Amino acid sequence: MVMIRKADLPETIPVFPLPGALLLPRARLPLHIFEPRYLQMIEDCLKTPHRLIGMVQPREKAGKDGRTLQTIGCAGRLTQFSETEDGRYMITLSGASRFRIVNEVTGFTPYLRADVGWSDFERDLGKPEVDHDFDRPAFLNLLQKYFESQSLSTDWDSLQDAEEELLVNSLSMLCPFDPEEKQALLEAPSLTTRRETLVTLMEFGMRETGDGETIQ
């Protein structure tokens, strides 16, 4: 994966509002693209030097600012691309940095673009984060109970060996949380805070299914 430098970050990027689709820095998000306006977005993105697309959660209701999108999203670099025989695109975005929407740009393309600011998230471009308080056995024990309560399955061997940032971020992206909960995970200021938020959401999900469990 080619690293993105601060100087490479553009002021305006295409944005893809997709409920529940969360992208985080240094994580990967596969997407299946079939709507004509987003097929055009991919084609235009491939022509740019940065190849960045901003993933952002739509709001259920317009905010006080009148916007229908969340203010904070995460940009990913288009690192894998293939086309199906019927003209659909299968792509992978590699998370580069979160951003803050400054202004939505409409009228020039069939898809939405936004002027964005990157300054609040400069450490997204750095090395993987470390969670010094991470208790892997306790976390995986809770995770197993949560997956059982949700009738989910996974490759437990790979989870045992995964780096803590990859583990927490991948689960934040994959677990079936609602868009507002995904947004809370995205906006977490540190890996430790994201892991704590993830634990809280799993515990809440288990209580809803009657399988209450608390991690110490």
Coarse shape: globular
Let me know the CATH homologous superfamily of the largest domain: LON domain-like
Sheet-strand content, in percent, reads 15-25%
Helix-strand sequence? EEHEEEEHHHHH
**Largest sheet strand order:** 1-3-4-5-6
CATH class of the largest domain: Mainly Beta
What's the β-strand tally? 6
How would a crystallographer describe the biggest sheet? Answer: 5 strands, mixed, barrel
Q: Tally the structural domains.
A: 2
Oligomerization state = single chain
Plain-language structure description:
The chain has 216 residues and is α+β, with helices and mostly antiparallel strands. The chain folds into two domains: 6-125, Roll (Archaeosine Trna-guanine Transglycosylase, Chain: A, domain 4), CATH 2.30.130; 136-208. It has helices spanning 36-46, 136-149, 156-161, 164-174, 179-187, 191-208, and strands at residues 12-17, 28-33, 52-56, 72-83, 89-105, 113-117. Strands 1-3-4-5-6 form a five-stranded mixed barrel. It is globular, with a radius of gyration of 18 Å. The model has no long low-confidence stretch (mean pLDDT 89).
What's a concise summary of this model?
The protein is α+β, with helices and mostly antiparallel strands. It is built from six helices and six strands, in the order E-E-H-E-E-E-E-H-H-H-H-H.
Question: Layout of SSEs?
Answer:
Layout: E1 12-17, E2 28-33, H1 36-46, E3 52-56, E4 72-83, E5 89-105, E6 113-117, H2 136-149, H3 156-161, H4 164-174, H5 179-187, H6 191-208
Parallel strand pairs: 1-3
Antiparallel strand pairs: 1-6, 2-5, 3-4, 4-5, 5-6
